[in-house]
Amino acid sequence: MKLQHLFRITACLLFLGACSNTRTATAPEINNTLSIDGNLSDWNTGESIVENTETVNYYAAHDNDFLYLFIDIKSPFKENSIQRSGLVIYLNHSKETRKRIGIGFPSGSFNLLREDPGAFNSLQNDSDWLGKPGNQELLSELAKENFERVIIVERADGKSNPEYGFADRSQIEIDGFAISTNEDSRLTSIEMRIPLDGSSIFGIRKENVWLGFSVDPPDFRINEQQYDVSGRSQNNRYGNRRRPPSASEQRRALSRNLGEYERWYRLNLD
């Protein structure tokens, strides 16, 4: 009986934990026309706020034909992260396939480097690549295209490793779909208008959707031999024994330092 009681408590805690990690928001219905210019001046920010965080604010609204999104970056660190790795926006009706298709805007200089497989492979594998002046200049040149190009992230089943494609903004701005940024702002703001008739790249209709935002730095392939992975302890500066970090731990730390990020919402359009 005690074991059964413990099992019920554990199951309940797991259920509550899962629920507490699910953010639900409602996109209000609006009557006014929103200009897609990367500016919040025509938004009712009090009603349309999805979440206010320390680094970014998210807004959403809809009318009969379109879903409107606004992402307002507030943190210089977040700004640097998305300029390098892009900001991918996901929309899908199904939780299981919510990462099936995403649009990266700004595209991110690291992502634009993917069009040169040799250079991107060197970025992932050569720990000195970023420190070379010529490569820094290359990334700076690519960054100039961050708001002219979009990166399309696609997973056939919504779960597997992504495939990446690239397009000019004009190629996806059809059938009412629009995306813009405020070029006069010091930090990035992104405004999107997505048709709710299934015609957009997301294929959504006027039903509740899963909305996600992601910053995904490249998978840097740290050489295991750069670290002592034998399990032998080393002394830290206080004389205590410690195990050196593994390559996977180093990769996770590097991704966090580069601003790896993922946030999801269940957005009601009722």
Could you describe the 3D structure shown?
This protein has 270 residues and is α+β, with helices and mostly antiparallel strands. It has eight helices and 14 strands. A hairpin with a 7-residue loop joins strand 9 and strand 10. The protein is globular and about 55 Å long. The termini are far apart. The N terminus is likely disordered.
Quick overview of this protein structure:
With 270 residues, this protein is of the alpha+beta class.
Characterize the largest beta sheet: strand count, sense, and whether it forms a barrel.
7 strands, mixed
Q: How many helical elements?
A: 8
| CA(first)-CA(last) distance | 45 Å
Instruction: Give a count of the beta strands, DSSP E runs of length 2 or more.
Output: 14
Helix/strand order, N-terminal first: HEHEEEHEEHHHEEHEEEEEHE
Relative helix content: 25-40%
Please state the CA-atom Rg, rounded to the nearest Å.
21 Å
Low-confidence segments:
1-20, 224-233
Give the strand order, joined by hyphens, for the main sheet: 1-14-11-5-6-7-8
Broad shape: globular
User: Helix/strand-derived class?
Assistant: alpha+beta
Report mean pLDDT, rounded to a whole number.
Answer: 84
Q: Approximately what portion of the residues adopt beta-strand conformation?
A: 25-35%
Features of the shown structure:
about 270 residues, alpha+beta, globular, disordered N terminus
Topology:
Layout (H helix, E strand, L loop, with lengths): L1 H19 L2 E4 L18 H4 E4 L3 E7 L3 E8 L2 H10 L2 E5 L8 E4 L4 H4 L4 H9 L7 H11 L5 E6 L8 E6 H4 L5 E4 L7 E7 L13 E7 L18 E2 L5 E2 L4 H11 L3 E8 L2
Parallel strand pairs: 1-14
Antiparallel strand pairs: 2-3, 3-4, 4-10, 5-6, 5-11, 6-7, 7-8, 9-10, 11-14, 12-13
